[in-house]
Sequence to fold (457 residues):
Amino acid sequence: MSFIKVLILKFSSLRTQTMASSDKTINTDVPEKDVFAIHFLQSLSNLTTQNPFNSPDTTNYRARKIKKAAYVSMAKAAGGSSRLWSRALLGRAAKENNKIVRFARRKRKVTWKISSKRRSDQRAPEATDRLRNLVPGGGTMETSKLMEETAHYIKCLSMQVKVMQCLVDGLSPK
Amino acid sequence: MDPPLVNDSSFSAANPSSYTLSEIWPFPVNDAVRSGLRLAVNAGRVFNRSEHSGSKDVSVAEESTVTDLTAGWGGRKTRDLNSEDDSSKMVSSSSSGNELKESGDKKRKLCGSESGNGDCSMRPEGETSSGGGGGGSKASEQKNKPEPPKDYIHVRARRGQATDRHSLAERARREKISEKMTALQDIIPGCNKIIGKALVLDEIINYIQSLQRQVEFLSMKLEVVNSGASSGPTIGVFPSGDLGTLPIDVHRTIYEQQEANETRGSQPEWLHMQVDGNFNRTT
Fold:
């Protein structure tokens, strides 16, 4: 636990350094590792303080909570409400926590599943539908938008995997 | 969403002091057109706002010409709308038709107000109130002529391809999708050599699933590492200490565990909080 706090401090100092060195230009395409790491470490430490590990939760439940925290912090690091998938992820997480979070609605929501089912002459409708199910919020996206969001989602996911791998390596006792 | 912000700031800086057409007109709209429809809509919004404020400024300065000109633009705008709607309809794809039209409308308005303002700022020195509404509209039309081609995506049908608007739109949509698909292929390692939309999509799905599974695995690992690091001593302390003194809580914990096994984690949060609070106090 103390180690996590040290890590948080380290990351936040690193973040301020990078902010100082870089200009005001914010590149939204590159997923921000440091932001994700800070968010995730903070939520981890929150979990450990809220839920000390002698609590009755099963390990499965705790692992699920950690996973949820990882996804939420990834969505936050990806720019909160700027991306459709991150909006969907945050909205889902908020719904699970019974909080009501409202983003400004952009468009009338259309479920594209129906229309793509109707278009059965295309070669890969099932694959697109499966992709829709995988990418959060994909059910309401139009196909080209879905591809765009998928690209960003994949980038963020790989970033997340890398950071989590680093964390596991760092936290595990030698 | 960078360019609109930049534009806004630059406008607010530029508006009060010096109001010249060449500074304001060319770059933001070009940017917007280049960087896609959504941007274009936003830029249009920003632009309209700033334009309105700009026109107000000008109108405070020279009232007579401005009133004449506004009458002029009104007529022009409606004419333009009628003439250009067809072209935008021709190409607007079924998916992004609304956006296209919106941006088209916005930009058309923009063009109108733009050129009108340009006249305002250029006129007063030379032929102030001589031309009136008619002159203003003519000048704006002349200025408008080179601009409209940027409003829509130009699609050409090759020989043997259908030319009605639906197939054109569908073709534009498919091109857009395949473009995005190639971008996706570049991201995923080892996906460049695969040919065929279905296979590529399968590969993408597999990759995402593997990443998600990896995240799950890593979170389990993290949980184990974390609990092993922090709760090593407390597990030793807990059972010997306070089991007897807190029978209710133990019952509750057992109940909770059963519930967790049954419902897989959909139990209310507050129960956990309460139990945890009690444990915190005791240990």
In short: The mean pLDDT of chain A is 73. The first helix of chain A runs from residue 2 to 21. Residues 85 and 153 of chain A are 7 Å apart (CA to CA).
